[in-house]
Structure formats: structure tokens, C-alpha cells
Write a structure and sequence with these properties.
Helix content: 25-40%
Order of helices and strands: HHHHHEEHEHHEHHEEEHEEEHEEH
Structural class: alpha/beta
Shape: elongated
CATH class of the largest domain: Alpha Beta
CATH architecture of the largest domain: 4-Layer Sandwich
Largest sheet: 6 strands, mixed
Number of helices: 13
Strand content: 15-25%
């Protein structure tokens, strides 16, 4: 087999030579062409195939077929340039995803962080408490909610869990749709958790995003940040479903490290996922900052029992935000916060 000639490049003249030779002498062998160009038979075979010729007929010397139109070769530089432009758009979109601005009147408001509903029928999930909390938020002036992911149980990814489930993911999405309708006007934003993400991972379709769009609710995956203006006072609210540095011994360790290692500071930072309520006010960069983890409406599960996890409390940490000057008061649950919120707004 001939060695590839150093610096050899295919050109229009060489392709033309192959076409004319094969028209006149269709029984020409790959070896002859390889010897003529000083390259390997395999290189000639690849080129002829790329030109659209039928190799079997060529080798047999019985017939010759060529494409109706010339194959178009795209320069790799053009391919790179096209992807480069697309990726710049995706980077810009990525940097803006989950970032919102909210403006409120000059009155005390409260924001409740709700997560890990794990909505499912015939399961160990406190649907009654979930509905009551949603209705409480809907009916309380100045009270709003941020949803932190794992809205439905959605064991679409795990066969054993699917078999053990009492309702299908489709049923659970319908229940989630109804749940949002109870207080959609009060929801500032929704993010996804790992259970929600299984559907787009498996099917490429984000059903949670579609349901939120139906209700006109802001949606983003994994994380969201809101610059909330209460009157002229700005508060930075940030929440995400999971973050690094998790600790079973200190549940607020993860959101604290998010403040330290994340892209920017916040006034209230929330990390969900662990199903264990925790809330803490701490001094960060010379000012009081609040961090927390919401509880879960999924009181327990077969996974939780097998792992030795205690029952969860369906508690939703809630924060009062005051106008004119920076003042934040945190409560472990929305029902406690409503008492103070109503008192402050009715003075």
C-alpha cells in the first residue's frame, strides 16, 4: 500500500481527473489511483465515497454512478463561526436565567419559601396542609411565595420506584397544576429540583416549565435570584434546590457557603432538598443575613425509612421585609409569620 505523500491535498483538478478517468475506464482499480496520486488505497476509497460514487459497481467495473449535483463541502471555519454565534447567545441567556426584579408598595411584605412538595396521590404527603398553606398565602395581603423544587415525586427515572408509586407522573403533574392555581398570583418564582429534572433528562421535555408558563409564573431551573424593592429598600433574595457543602449536623452550613462562594451576596439565601427545616440569622460581611432550609410536605417515604431519616415537618420559612430601611425578620413557618405580618400591616 502506498504511503501518503507529504503535503498531499485534494483539489478540484484531482477530483476532475478521477471523474474523467472513471468515465473512460470504469474498471480502474483503487490501486492504480493510489499509485498515481502517491497515497493509500484507503484514502482513495474514502474520497470516492465522499464524492458520492457507488464503490461496489466501481470495483466490479460494471457500471458507474455519480451524484446529480456536486456534493457541497462546508468549511470547518464556517461551522465553528456558526456555533460560536449560537453559543454566545446561550451564554448571555444563561447569565440572565433566573434573575428577576420585583417591586412592591411601601408596606411590610413577607416572602415564604416552599419546597419539596413531592406531590403524589395515595402517599405519605401532607396534601391537606399543602393546600391550606397555599390558600393562606393567596388570602393574606402582602404575603408571597417562592417555590424551591421537587414539586412532584416523579419517579420516572427509577423503575423500582415507578412500580412502587401509587400515582403516575402524569397524575402528579395534573395535581401540581391544580396546586399552582390555588395561589399563582402570589408566586414570585419557581425553580426545579432533582425529581423535576428527571423528566427533561429522560424525555427532553420540561413539563414543570410548561405548567408555570400556563399560569404566568416566572420559572428557571436549579436557581433563582430576585432584587425585591419594598418601597425604596432593596432586598436580595436567592434560592436554589441543591448546593455543595451539605451537612447533616448543620443544615444551614450549605447556604452559608453559598453566600461565601457563590457569584454574589444575598440578604436571604435558601437551599432546599434536605427536607429538614432550619433557619438562622448570622453576620455576613458586617450585616445581618438570613439563611434557611425549608421542610417538606412529604412526611416520609420508603427511601427515607430505609435510610433512617426522621419524619419531615411541612414548614415554610418566611421573612418579613420592611420598607424605607433594611429590616428582616425570619420565621420557621408561614403560619407564624402571618400573625406578625397582619399586625404590622394593620397598625
Amino acid at each position: 500500500m502506498a504511503n501518503h505523500t507529504p503535503g498531499f491535498r485534494w483539489s478540484e483538478e484531482k477530483e476532475k481527473y478521477i471523474k474523467e478517468l472513471l468515465r473512460k475506464h470504469p474498471d480502474t482499480s483503487l490501486r492504480e489511483l493510489a499509485d498515481y496520486f502517491g497515497i493509500s488505497s484507503n484514502a482513495v476509497r474514502k474520497k470516492i465515497k465522499k464524492m458520492g460514487f457507488t464503490l461496489r459497481g466501481l470495483r466490479a467495473g460494471e457500471f458507474f454512478i455519480e451524484p446529480e449535483s456536486e456534493p457541497q463541502e462546508v468549511e470547518m471555519s464556517e461551522v465553528w463561526s456558526a456555533y460560536e454565534k449560537q453559543n454566545e447567545i446561550k451564554i448571555a441567556k444563561h447569565k440572565n436565567d433566573g434573575r428577576y426584579i420585583a417591586e412592591f408598595p411601601e408596606e411590610v411584605i413577607a416572602v415564604s419559601f416552599i419546597s419539596d412538595q413531592h406531590i403524589a396521590g395515595n402517599n405519605i404527603v401532607a396534601l391537606k396542609r399543602m393546600r391550606e398553606d397555599a390558600e393562606l398565602i393567596a388570602n393574606t395581603p402582602g404575603l408571597y411565595a417562592c417555590l424551591g423544587g421537587d414539586s412532584i415525586d416523579n419517579h420516572i427515572k427509577h423503575r423500582a420506584a415507578v412500580l412502587a408509586a401509587r400515582t403516575t407522573p402524569g397524575d402528579q403533574y395534573e395535581l401540581f397544576d391544580y396546586y399552582l392555581s390555588l395561589f399563582s398570583d402570589k408566586i414570585l418564582g419557581v425553580i426545579t429540583g432533582n425529581h423535576d429534572d428527571w423528566t427533561p433528562q429522560v424525555s427532553g421535555t420540561d413539563v414543570i416549565a410548561s405548567i408555570c408558563a400556563k399560569h404566568g409564573i416566572s420559572f428557571s431551573s436549579d436557581e433563582a435570584r430576585i432584587a425585591a424593592y419594598v418601597g425604596d429598600q432593596e432586598y436580595r433574595l436567592a434560592w436554589r434546590h441543591k448546593y455543595r457543602f451539605g451537612s447533616q449536623m448543620n443544615q444551614t452550613h450549605s447556604p452559608k457557603q453559598w453566600y461565601r462562594f457563590g457569584p454574589e451576596p444575598f440578604d436571604v439565601g435558601v437551599v432546599c432538598h434536605h427536607h429538614e427545616t432550619a433557619i438562622e440569622a448570622c453576620i455576613m460581611h458586617g450585616k445581618q443575613t438570613w439563611v434557611c432550609r425549608p421542610g417538606s410536605y412529604q412526611i416520609n417515604s420508603s427511601y427515607g425509612r430505609q435510610g433512617g431519616f426522621n419524619d419531615s415537618l411541612p414548614a415554610c420559612p418566611t421573612f418579613l421585609l420592611y420598607p424605607h430601611h433594611r429590616r428582616i425578620i425570619g420565621f420557621p413557618d408561614v403560619r407564624d409569620a402571618v400573625i406578625t405580618l397582619n399586625a404590622e400591616r394593620n397598625q
